[in-house]
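Usage

Read records sequentially. Each one opens with the input sequence:
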Amino acid sequence: MRRSRRTETLRQLAAETTLDRQDVILPLFIVSGTNRTEPVESMPGVVRESVDVLTRRAAGLKSSAVLLFGVPDDPEKDDTGASALRDDGIVPQAVRALKSERPDLAVITDVCLCGYTTHGHCGVLTESGEVDNDPSAALLGKMAAAHAAAGADVAAPSAMMDGQVAVIRETLDNAGFGQTCVMAYASKFASAFYGPFRDAAHSAPGFGDRRGYQLTPGNRREAVREAILDEEEGADWLMVKPAMPYLDIVSDLRAVSRLPLAAYHVSGEYTMLKLAAQAGVISEREAVLEAMTCIRRAGADAIITYYAEEICQWLG
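and closes with the structure output:
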């Protein structure tokens, strides 16, 4: 067995799984205003930035695809997340700017209301405080249409409302955006690894949690069932979130679906690697590239990761 491992060239020739610059997607956090760059304290190297700042550095981005998250200021939030639906909202502004500056970029937008609501949940609430599924899905469709009108290539609904993919697909088609893809957060778990993201996006729920609509971490068959439903509803892509603790789910979905499959290497996974590297207990480059290769090995076609720019640099 060792004969084919003897040299680097032989190892590359025998490689079953490879990692390329085209395999990674860079998440970006967009804030309102101008000339704003705000470090995310819990995520070393990650910032929130206004559209003008992002536009100035767009030409230098090494990643070929980005995933945009809007982070409105508190006065822009309300109980229904109305600012998420505006044609001149944070994300549509960023989409237009990026498409003008870098038409080659694939621009994906997160479609969820949690960052736009005062209560921090992923949809509108009933009088009893539960997330109201169908009205929330309808709002997600309008949000996706606003992003598509600005030029987004892919709408990525993450709210985990039942039937959200079907509603978004129908809304996009009826609005004349039949070419806009839908990347479903098909198997999104109620994970403890999201903590730093909620700091970055200012999207922590004001009460309770999201276990009533996100997947239970121990439920493997249910994750596959969710993904199959999203595919039947018209999803163009499926996604697993988080990535590394759920590689079995990535593998399961790869076995049952022929759709392109993404995995989200989430904020907690990123921060653990960053802090371990800063402590000098791992080689950051080697550990990150190994982690990404393993996510690809499990079956992911693309990886959403805050390490995307470093990976592109390391891979040349």
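Summary fields computed downstream for this record:
- The beta strands are 24-31, 37-39, 47-50, 65-71, 106-111, 154-157, 181-188, 237-241, 261-265, 302-305.
- The chain has a mean pLDDT of 95.
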